[in-house]
Amino acid sequence: MNTDPYPSEWLKPWSWHGIPVGIIAAPAKTIETPDNNNTKSSPAVLIHGFGACKEHWRHNIETLREERSVYAIDLIGFGSSGKPISHLEGEEEATNGVRYGIDLWSKQVADFVTTELGTPVHLVGNSIGGVVALAAAQKLEKAGIPARGVILVNCAQRALDDKRLSEQPRLLRWGRPLLKNLTRQRWLTTRLFKTFANPRAIHKVLLEAYPSGANVDDELVQLLLRPALAPGAEEAFRGFINLFNDWTAPELLEVLQTPVTMIWGERDPWEPIQEARRWRRFSCVVALHELKGLGHCPHDEAPEQVNPLLLAALG
């Protein structure tokens, strides 16, 4: 098994506020022309979902770099990026700690675009990376270098956010204070995390996320397992499961000017396609591509179907 499939020169070190960030920087195969009006020369920035990493785009990068540079970024707390201690609202801020959430990750992505690339890009996000892409696009609009477009691949819907509490069954609404108290307990979140950070558990979750079972292989299990075993990995998990009041996709889609394309595996067990269909009401949404038989990560489950859609959306 090839555990390091990328040339060493593609693995670019970057530091964000003193935190190391893992980057795959894959150059375009064809010569790029730096033309601000040419979308084919605009780089693509790929943003993974929760528990994943930049290598989760393993079946997409080579195809996407036909005509443009491609960057895959490890969000803080994941992959080879730094994993600072988490601090939650109401807690004393830890030295070198961070408040994990959409604002942190979208600032990381937006700063990478503005400081390292300095040119309009396409943002591509899977799962929670989709919400991060939308929030980063909003920040880039405000910075005066709006993204060419955003592509959502089974974007996280964040059904447990407090703003959607009325949609939950009465028992879950009643138990929300207890749930919030429990998820703050580091002893509990660390124990929960360790139950998932093993090959058998990861493989089981992948088979749920990839209903066809395609591309659920040892390489995938290992690329997800290695960062999960790194010191501090449980802190991002603690931060994530405490995101009870953060950005949701509809809040961002309602105000975004950047065009948005959605790609969705219709058998996603966690992010129902019915909700994605409702997002077509937003003026920034230009297309929704529904993929039969595919799940939460169709870009990895069936890249032969998703890559052409990505290329078309990239222009």
Features:
315 residues, alpha/beta, eight-stranded mixed beta sheet, 13 helices, 8 strands, 38% helix, 15% strand, globular
Question: How is this fold's topology laid out?
Answer:
Blueprint: E1 11-16, E2 19-26, E3 44-47, H1 61-64, E4 70-73, H2 102-117, E5 122-127, H3 128-143, E6 149-155, H4 170-174, H5 176-183, H6 186-196, H7 199-209, H8 218-228, H9 233-240, H10 249-255, E7 260-265, H11 273-278, E8 285-291, H12 298-301, H13 303-314
Parallel strand pairs: 3-4, 3-5, 5-6, 6-7, 7-8
Antiparallel strand pairs: 1-2, 2-4
SS content category: alpha/beta
Q: What is the first-to-last residue Cα distance?
A: 34 Å
**Can you give the mean pLDDT?**
93
Order of H and E elements? EEEHEHEHEHHHHHHHEHEHH
Major sheet: arrangement of strands: 1-2-4-3-5-6-7-8
How much strand? 15-25%
Fraction of residues in H or I helices: 25-40%
Radius of gyration: 19 Å
Describe what you observe in this structure.
The chain has 315 residues and is α/β, with parallel strands linked by helices. The protein has 13 helices and eight strands. α7 (199-209) crosses α8. The radius of gyration is 19 Å and the shape is globular. The model has no long low-confidence stretch (mean pLDDT 93).
How would you briefly describe this protein structure?
The protein has 315 residues and is an alpha/beta fold. The protein contains 13 helices and 8 strands. Helix 7 packs across helix 8 (218-228).
